[in-house]
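Pinned message: reference record for Transcriptional repressor NF-X1
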Amino acid sequence: TGSLIEQLTTEKYECMVCCEVVRIVAPVWSCQNCYHVFHLNCIKKWARSPASQAEDGNSGWRCPACQNASVQVPKTYTCFCGKVHNPEWNRNEIPHSCGELCGKRRQCLDCPHLCNILCHPGPCPSCPAFVTKTCECGQTSHSVRCGQSTKIHCSNVCGNTLNCGKHSCTQVCHAGKCSPCQLTVQQVCYCGSNFKEVLCGSKEELSDGFGSFSCQNICGKKLNCGRHNCKQVCHPQPCQLCPRLPQVVYRCPCGQTPLSKLLELGCVERKICTDPIPSCGKTCGKPLSCGSYEFIHTCESLCHEGDCRPCSHTSNIYCRCGFKKKVTAITFMCDKRCNKKRSCGRHKCNEVCCVDTEHKCSLVCGRKLNCGLHRCEEPCHRGSCQTCWQTSFDELTCYCGESVIYPPVPCGTQPPECKKTCTRPHDCDHPVYHTCHSEEKCPPCTYLTQKWCMGKHELDSPICGTLFYPHRAIRYRRICQVQIQAPESGDCSPCVLAVLSFQSCVMEPIYMLPQIKSTTLFFRIAAISIATKLTDLQLGDSVEISRLITKKEMKQARLQCDEECLALQRNRRLAEALEIDDNSDPFNIRSSGPKYSDLLKEDARRDLKFVSDIEKEMRLLVEAVNKGKHTKKSHCYPPMNRDHRRIIHELAQVYGIESVSYDNEPKRNVVITAVKGKSVCPSNTLTSVLDKEMQSRPAPSLPHYKQTDKSSGSSGLSKPLKEEPVIDYFDVQD
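Predicted structure (tokens):
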């Protein structure tokens, strides 16, 4: 109120509709809900505009400030208290006021006094009067400010009568009604055999004088005859008359003949209820529970007292589910099992002769909850399970402990996100750039390092932790020979060469040991030495095989140098004497034609059709990219096994095509890309090379058996070597 008076007097108050200053002589309108002041003309225009209409369309227009809906559109300029129309401005009074007492009712519902200050904008101040109020229980009174909303409580016991009308409230002075009586009373059933306790004053406490409730047992009280007991279920009101009293029974047991006629025929008149009821001698004829709607079976015994005998007839009776029927005297159950789905939609009913309509599932759900640790213990149901109800009261922190989620922590909650740098131990000593994480394995190090290739041909800056296989500077197939030191063996140390073949676009190697005759030993050395010591090989170090294989395998690994070894040694000495570089090709021998590896040729012989199709596809791709407008063209092969992918990678290297393996097993596939000017078709395809070799190959001879050293003590003949698949290190998944 004070702020509004000051701003209106100094003409600093702005209308929210036109954003202009409200002058002291301008007609205004004040909202009675938020007390904002607007120009009268502005509020009239706003009330008639479509933007001011309420959402339901029937509540009138909305105040621009508080969105309170009003039905009537303001038409006249009045003072703030509403008594004077078009009030004149007086420099000694508040602008837009009449200068008289406000007289409006205050918002407090308990205050009966009117506002006693001059006509003003804004809400009326609280009432300054004091009144006397009693406490909640009415035993004490206090003088408080008028309109005070707080309740008065004393320290006395309430003492008001409770709902039962018998007991008093024992709570300390409180607000609202007293709580229902919590004392219990004992009730007896109508027949007087059972008791129960109920709250005092409840509806169950009401009694009709015979008892308060039915125990659902047989009444058993003595009837008025004094000889028979009541056979009704526990009931209110007195028991009925004995159904065998002479004044109650008027007919014979079957009900066909009145007793008066039987008395005329000489039957003895009944005096008391225990006297037998005379029989008429006719067939009973009472309907039995068996039979059907079309044919009702009746009792065939003579008129008798008591229950009728079982029916002696047979009839076509359906089982309870209605699937089968047979001739029998009693109801039966068929052996058909219900095939309908239960209410859960997962299990079958499987009940014998089922008559259930809902087929509720009685099994436990047992599915894993969203937390992944506990299982649903609810009855088997449709749809998703509820969230895990278990809660931990321990703090959940990130790995470094900086971020914390305080208990209670719902089960399955992930550790909090942390912005701090990861503090886990890392394989390298480079700076860490990733944040704290909950995964056990850290992301790869992104620090740039400098590494040589295995043959120390090229230096590059790969990311830390990745293998470096230079391929950009290699225009032809470069074979990098890495010598692995073998144990000393007498006269000549056998040389073992590991040939590392690089693809044109993917930094994944394929290792082969062409000098080792035993494939079993090759796999052991390749898997243990080359794969596990790859970092040492990258740095140019050698690997000692004697620490990785047994002594027996050492003896088997001692190979005699053959003619190829001698030729290599002779060429190496000649090259050193003439100072010829190993990478040079002065006689254009290497570039004379494509060179296919023995392993690739062997694979082509096993599956010639597959290799022929791959070469055909590569030739078409290379020809299309060299003749077309685009610089690159790609082809995606369907998912295939590792051996077929290795064949594609090796053939792509011959054609100068880039090849990359994608996806995980068993959907891993290869995508090849031909580049204009780089990809070329070789002069001789692999299939044509194999045809020439087949034509020049001599007739097949008997299998060759290796002759072992006689001094070793083994037999003279050994079994042929068993072929085993070659490990494709190029196609290994991450």
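Pinned by admin. Summary line: The first strand starts at residue 28 and ends at 30.
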